[in-house]
Design brief:
This protein is of the alpha+beta class. It has helices at 25-35, 45-50, 60-75; strands at residues 15-23, 81-88, 101-112, 117-126, 129-140. The protein has a five-stranded antiparallel β-sheet with strand order 1-3-4-5-2. The longest helix is centred in the middle third of the chain and has 16 residues, at 60-75. The protein is elongated. 31% of the residues are buried. The model has no long low-confidence stretch (mean pLDDT 97).
Length: 142
């Protein structure tokens, strides 16, 4: 695959389509099974509260993976992401209800780099607060 976005078609400030991602307790159980991360803070409310958390929280790596979907959907090619990093700043608290939690992700081109690469900065928010800091990806465009 190749990125469907051409380097010449973007400039600093180009905004990627924003997306919202719903996270439920069922989502966390599915992710735990797929990742092998069965830490009880991600599924056991009693345990999470005993260790000082407000409730069960989403896996940091899950939140990171959901966020990069804004970039991979934009490029049309997951392999176009050549670097990606974040800082985990706040937890995504997932209530035990039918509503779950919503992660809001937006992104924009922050820098044009050599060799048809761009740096995309992501803003990842839950309940009005950033949950990932320094969320940046280097992307190879067509």
């Amino acid at each position: 695959m190749t990125a469907k976005i051409a380097y010449g078609d973007v400039e600093v400030g180009t905004e990627l389509p924003a997306q919202n991602f719903l996270v439920t307790r069922a989502t966390l159980v599915q992710y735990a099974g797929a990742s092998g991360d069965f830490n009880p803070i991600h599924w056991n409310e009693k345990f999470a509260k005993e260790v000082g958390l407000p409730d069960v929280i989403a896996h940091g790596m899950f939140t990171m993976a959901e966020a990069i979907r804004v970039v991979t959907d934009w490029t049309g090619d997951p392999a176009a992401v050549v670097e990606y990093g974040v800082r985990f700043t706040k937890p995504v608290v997932v209530p035990n209800d039918d509503q779950g939690a919503t992660i809001e992700v937006s992104g924009k081109v922050a820098a044009l780099l050599d060799d048809n690469k761009v740096r995309v900065d992501l803003t990842v928010v839950f309940e009005g607060r950033k949950v990932l800091g320094m969320s940046r990806a280097v992307v190879q465009l067509a």
